[in-house]
Design goal:
The chain is about 35% helix and about 20% strand. The chain is α/β, with parallel strands linked by helices and about 500 residues long. The protein has 3 domains: about 200 residues, FAD/NAD(P)-binding domain (3-Layer(bba) Sandwich), CATH 3.50.50.60; about 110 residues, no CATH class; about 120 residues, Guanine Nucleotide Dissociation Inhibitor, domain 2 (2-Layer Sandwich). The protein has a 6-stranded mixed beta sheet, with helices on both faces. It has a 5-stranded parallel beta sheet with strand order 9-2-1-13-19, with helices on one face. The longest helix is centred in the N-terminal third of the chain and has 26 residues.
Length: about 500
Amino acid sequence: MKVVIIGSGMAGLTAGAYLAKAGHEVTVLEQFPTPGGVTATVQQDGFGWDIGPLLMEGFAPGDKARLILEELGVSEQVKVVHEDRLLWQEGCALEKPAEYEGPYWRRERLKMLFPEERSALDRYYRFYDQMLALMGLARRAEAAHGMAALWLKLRMLLALQPVKKYMNWNGGQLMDHFFHSPSLKTFFLGIVADFVTAPSEFPALGVPSIHLETAFDKRIPTYPGAKSVQTAYTYILGGCQILVNAVLRVILEHGGQVRTSTPVKRIVIENGRATGVELADGRIETADLVLASGGMKEVFFDLVGREHIPAELAAQIESNRMMESVLMVQLGIDFDPSLYQKAALCYYYKTDDMEEAVRRLRSGDYHEGKDGFLIYVPSLHSPSLAPAGKYAVTIYTVAPDTLAAGNWSSRREELADKLIAEAEAHIPGLRQHTLTSLVLTPEEFRQRTHQKHHSFGGVPPVIGNKPPAHKTPIAGLWFIGAQSESGGGVLNVMVGARKVAKRILKGE
């Protein structure tokens, strides 16, 4: 078959690689000058920075993304390092002990900091263990067949009983149930701010999965060696462009092509079937199948057209809440930041009122870094991303796609400088020792992703959100990418794209 894929992010490249490897004629069309979407590494003055993924799950041996790379025959090209991250919060900044103290050392440290919450912490960690057991069974059931799958599902029903009462709760209710301290609530749930999702919108049973202990101590046994659901977190050595290039090469080596600076104007629909795409220059690319990644509104409303989709699908798309964007400041500096921040990545939480913080962000009221941010030093694990003796640093924070006051073009330098100033409270001297800088605002991300509203990470895990199905009501058209998955992320989009490719190869 002739397959046209819109978008060269990791979803488009993964699906394209499977289909090209199976002998189909694959053409990937990318409107941006370089491939990779937000899974890319940008370069300037000898420094390199990733613009999307940071410490990622799924790439350790035996895990889902690693298995995909093995199936595509490029696993050896994508090397990773197993690491963990820091979390800084006023009054409870925990550094892992030099000697390993077991998987629950953070619980014991928190008991010392919050003695009035000792029993609450024990209760929360019992819930955490119950959820790990349930998620572990679900993971095994995914790969099981026949009687083994049935037995695992029965065990899942039993494992669900202790946590069933929380199924219809949100994250805020869960934290209120366990803790009195606002700081502890933020400690366990603060990462939802990365999705620009309020605690009251996030499903309660998802809390343990976004705050796994292995993210904070790489010495804790991880899947698959310990048969634990707790994943290992890894960095891609040399930057995420290594991953992009490896999968892209599979397409090229099997006769496919990836064409950049080639925007698509519309998906051609004839008699209820996608038959190709019309490019911005008016040329028509015919196809037996079209796989479209990108924003759901941009794909279904702009490229397909509302007249071609059922009213219920249009209503479903309209009802999904999107994330906001990010402000990302890339620096090349001439001193070692690990003197102040011991790990390559640290999240800095600055507010306990996440409900209000999310509300203000969505209204266009940007916090200028005062609510929180992260600092990432990729050259600590990948020295090739900076000249010898120098360091690449990324500072970023969630930000409104559209500012209520002014715009990103006129305020980019001002707001970048304010974010660096906030970061200097933790790593002094950043501005004084900057050799080069690169600022990426929501406007740049809109251009890169071809979205009218940049939703960093795709569809947030908000209760009630339901992304469109991969297989669309239009014959020959499939929807892939970050906005086809709840939570987005490299792992999810690669797994989703593989599922789509496998379904296509089965003749669905």
